[in-house]
Amino acid sequence: MAAKTPDQMTDDLLRPLEGASGRYWTALAFFGGIVIAALCAFAWQVYGGIGVAGIRRPVFWGFYITNFVFWIGLSHAGTLISAILRLANATWRRPVTRCAEVITVFALSIGATFPVIHLGRPWLAFWLFPYPSERGIWPNIRSPLLWDFFAINTYLLGSVTFLLLPMIPDMALIRDRATGLRKKVYSVVSIGWRGTPKQWHRLESAMQIMAVAVIPVAVSVHSIVSWDFAMAPVPAWHSTIFAPYFVCGAIFSGIAALIIAMALLRKFLHLEEYLLRIHFENLGKLLLVMSLLWFYFVFAERLTIWYGNEPSEMTVFWVTQTGSFSPLFWLMVICNFVIPFPILAIKKLRTITGCVIASIGVVIGMWLERFLIIVPSLSHKYLPYSFGTYRPTWVEITITAGTFAAMALLYMLFSKTVPIISIWELKAAPQTQSGHAPALAPVGQEGAD
Amino acid sequence: MAHQWGMVIDLDRCTGCEACVVACHAENNISTVGEDQAARGRAKHWIRVERYFEGEFPDLKTKFMPVLCQQCDAAPCEPVCPTFASYHTIEGLNGQVYNRCIGTRYCANACPYNVRFFNWYNPEWEKPLNLQLNPDVSIREVGIMEKCTFCVQRIKAGEIQAAAEKRALKDGEVQPACVQSCPTKAMVFGDLSDPDSEVSRLARGNRGTKLLGELGTLPKVTYLQKDSWHGSENA
Amino acid sequence: MQRRDFIRITAASGAVAALEGCGNPDHQLIRFVPEEDLLPGIATWKPSICTLCPAGCGTLVRVMQGEAEVVRNGQLGILKMGLAKKIEGNPAHPINQGKLCPRGHAALQVTYHPDRIKTPLERTGQRGSGQFKEITWDAAIQQLVAQLSPRPTAANGWFGFITPPLRGQRKTIVDAFCDALAGNHIEFAFLAPEVISHANSESFGHGGLPTVDLSQSNYVISFGADFLGTWNSPVAQSIGYGNMRKGRAGQRGKFVHFESRVSQTAASADEWIPSRPGMDGALALGLAHVILRDKLRPATSAGQAGLLIDGWSAGLPDFAPEKVEQQSGVSRATIVRIAHEAADNSPSVALIGDAPAAHTNGLFNARAANALNALLGSVGKPGGINFSPAVGLRGTERLRSKAELSRMEGPGSIPIYDAVSPGTKPPQVLLLHDANLVFSTPAGQQPREMIEKAGFIASFSSFIDDTSAFADLILPDHSPLESWLDDAPESGSMHTVVSLAPPSMAPLHNTRSMPDVLLDLAQRLGGNVAKALPWKTYDEALQAAFTNLYNEKGKQSAKDADEFWSKAQTQGGWWSANEKPAPAGKAIPYPKLNPNPEFDGNADSFPFYFQPFASQMFYDGSLAHLPWMQEAPDPLSSVMWGTWVEINNRTAEKLGVKMGDTVEVASAHGKLQAPALVTPAIAPDVIAMPLGQGHENFTRYATGRGANPISILAPTTVEGTGSLAWAATRVRISRVGEGKIVMFGASMEETPQDTKHR
Amino acid sequence: MAATNSIYGLFPGPDAADRGMRALRAAGVAQEKILVMSSEPYEEYSFTRADHKTLMPWLATCGGIVGGTCGYLLARYTQVAYAITVGNMPRVSQFPTAIVTYELTMFGAVLTTVIALLITARLARRRPAPYDPAISHGKILIGVVDPADSARPELERSLRQAGAEQVKTTSA
Question: What is the distance between the alpha carbons of residues B109 and A309, in angstroms, rounded to a whole number?
Fold first, then answer.
């Protein structure tokens, strides 16, 4: 396939924004339905009391906090990856960055709702905010939940701007092509972008700064999420490995989510000529590295517990290794390592389909990992008399399903309003020097997937 | 200086009769949750008697251990609370401000002793059972963490009484409901800041141990370990 | 202003409030004029008596002002009144010295129970259908008078009154009422200790239960007696136990417990020695044998108690350790060791109660333990068993006549049939008060049919339970906190104790105190009945009794009878340490008893011994209606809101039974289903089950919950007494399927994984 | 659309644009009066070489410092103002304070960057500026803001010579 002219690209990439198929609307209705069901479930929980959920003594945290950690982790897909690639100036990143950053923003927003959902009295959630209240009470800075509050807000600001800034020129692009109401809307959101060299240059340097700033923020966010656990003297929680362990897991699940999202976009928005196998291959390699890193962390964690042989920790250890939680544990290992490793390691298997299969495994596996970090420890905390177990109720399951649906829903809506691939960045790929941008280089066995 | 309330539990005296458990329910307006919720781990017993078996039939030893909030000096439950609902009182108690609690349940996870109990639903007393409620103790609504207070309402009442009579509290003058009820006098309550109080003396004894003391929570409850029969010679 | 006006005004304002109150019913109720003035928020402590078990502990009731929905002259309204808020032990009371057991604390909920009978009821549906309609007290009493008036002159047994064992003036009134009506007063309780008191009256010339002076004992041997939980006077004994263990510097008594399972008491023992059910007598005599053989005590020291045991003077040849080992499963070495320890560590004491006395050879077991006590020289001594002195208050004699004993024999005893229906003639009128005959009688004895034979049944019960459901008329009693109480505990203190308590609070509902109703009836019936019961009210009768007591014993404790009476009210009774135990009377010579227990059901088809036991929370089942008791975890199993079947873990493995599985327990007389509790704390050939659950009819909290072990018991009786041998049944057990068991603690399978490196 | 008075040419590609730029400079138009717009950065071409000096990194740093200071003060103040001891921790606990300080530092940095961008890039403004939608179709605009009327024909010619596909003039 020959390189395309900038105008052709623009047309291709703006095409998804015009009109929507029946299939699209059905899917939208489907996911919307699930989200509404989840909202009802939450309403019921607020009305009837948190007791309608399955959490109990001593497992005071269950699905909700699992989802919290999982989604925050997923949010490390975009910003972190695209920031790193941006700094590394990897040209092939250009078609990938935006769909990644979108995942970040949505996953983060979804994850951030769970600390509220899981509250006993959610209507008082605002007591967490450090504002001068008439009660003269300030929140407790020493609580990791407060750290979460600050970290998540910073990360949210960072990732939202990181997503929005590069969107401005594309907004202008649509503005100039649109008519009527859409024109008005897009001229508002393109905030008077004209494309003067000054604007271009300031945008670039702003993105550079953002890229530098957002990486440490992303790392800190998931470290702090891990400290929600590591700060408590709970067997197998109270460990220094948690922060890097969580960050690694976060990036791991993030990349997986990105691959899945790209595959879906590629199929449904007909972006076969823009999201190429090379992108999946490169991300696949990244995923492989993370999979190995993840395994290394799990091994290190397990080893130290086993060797230390501290009774209360060993109880948790055996419960996950051979006891009642072992099926989930080994399923996790299969999903996170046994499946992805060969697929991604063997070049022949590292096709788009291969990468997607591996990624699906990883997403499931990482959710299980969060669950297995939280529940077994809580259910086997020191005094055997108060050991307990945990079963989620339909409320928790519905709300969990709802968040996945919400992710799909938001993503679909977004891809209908904004070009999911940054057009100007794609065009700006240095063609004149390096001939074709790698992104548009003809790659063998295109139909391999 | 402020009192430092502490307790000693003599496992050699405790017979696991659970008078303390019911006395605590009666004193502190702890609601019963019914069979279904109890089956789902929602029963609330601020003090419980843990039972452990050692060995197999016929050589079997049984051990009772009453467990209540240890009122730790370095309490893991306190700092994790984002709203200061759980905090440390001047008299060394792990206070729980009910109406400040938003129900993160973080404190309950952090507590190694599992002595914090959560109100999963609004409590109910079928009329006229509501008439049994103790007016000195507030009722906890849904979504709130509750826990043993060492019967702070009794402590305060005692202190006010003593202050009114312009005197210091006498040792043993104030007793939580559990201590008051204990038939074998296995539980002793008092001021640890007073080295001569009975509780201080017993806590210094060589049988004294702290529950999960290795975690560095500095509990203010001391357990006197079960003693063994020293044989005929002491007869 | 007239009270009526006041009420009308408040009613009006109440209506206004109702509009504001958005239909909150509290606002629609009228407000009554307070009957007493109390300071809000100020607590007063009033002495009372715990009536939940026969121990008779003295209590203090914390009363504070509150607003209650009450009925006054047939009108429901809100009244500012003194409300009981908490029950604690009365520190002044010699028995429980300020302490209380869990049941005692829960007594509060009897008064405030949502399912209390609030007003007299008349049966509308079939008997036992539990359908009643509300009637007035006048109508109710009219009915009863009508039933009792046309009484045949000397036809003994035409009328029966079944109560739990009563004491004090309450007993006097009931007895006098029954005698005057030529009826029978039957004292009935499943756990009534008639076998022990029987044996004691033989061995020591004292009926009734002993007071165990544990606080000074150095060596305690218990044969199955749950003396720290439910037996005899548990609070008093617990206080003593605490002192025995750690109360004396450098002096720690030892406690050895023989039983086939770990009861709450056994759990506290220094040594729990599993022994075959019913072999306690043999064990006691085995110990005695060693003591005699090794000349640790002279045979004569057993005195009267020894003479009851044949072969005593010969040194009990049949009870050599080897023989006892075969019978009881306790190794001879252990027997010899325990015997020596017991002899070397005087004062040492042996206790027997509960199951050992409820085997066919229960009387023998009790006699044997008595003999051992006598041999150890611990009868009537500090640190041993003592018999608290009787007081001359009418109706509180401890030493019961033979006739009286037979009256209060257990549910198995034929005398009850006689009493209820002499020969074949059923009683025309049957009165019931808190005696749950139907629940506490093995189904094999057809308690329902027994009851239904009666022509007319009236119950004074505060709750519709398995038995009062059959009543034609219900005249609800006050709750203990609402009524005058008196008691003369037979054990638990070395003092003479007569407890007295005025009402702690005004009645909530339209109820009347049972003695008052009897006195009212007596007046209406007139004639010899009125003569026999000269008092107008119960408290009048009590004052009369206390005047007697003052004249006989109380002279030095008060300047006149009135002061004596009022002092007794404020401190919760009268007690004195001056009284000396009466000298041991002559024992009644008794026929030879079979030392070995017999069990119903042959060992092949029913391989397991079935051992019911008193529940720490529900006692004999009479407390299953209290939510606090239902939710309090059982000390050993930590089970809440249910019952369970204890089964040894190895046995369970063989039968493929897992923790919580529903199992069927079948005897030759019936079967039941309950969840299995797999535990190492029971002998492999024993199945144990707590009393308490399995009520067919006992308020919203207990109805239809769990199974009742009594229902499958065999109607065998204890040799030498007529009482039910409730530990003498054999059963088979089989797994039914998955089940549900609600435990507060983690199930015993979830003990920590071993932390060996693997 | 442009409301200001200007004259500009639309060039097909960057090289043409470069020529146009040189032509204007030759015509002696002052740099600040030259108007350039494109739908791509074209950073490696001379016609985009406007001022490449920007204070943005420094602004971000300052913002970070300000944010960090606020964070530290907030953390410290709340701990002192609402002095409650928990878990035997000091009144002002360093680690939590450090964490909050750090997060708010980054917050400040990001925020100032965005604001700096909006201001320095003259974005989100009310005042209308000259513009031509043709840019969105890849054309590059080179022109002069309010030229002297005398110079107009001259400028138009030179733009055409440089290879402008069309030359437009706007007047207020």
Answer: 22
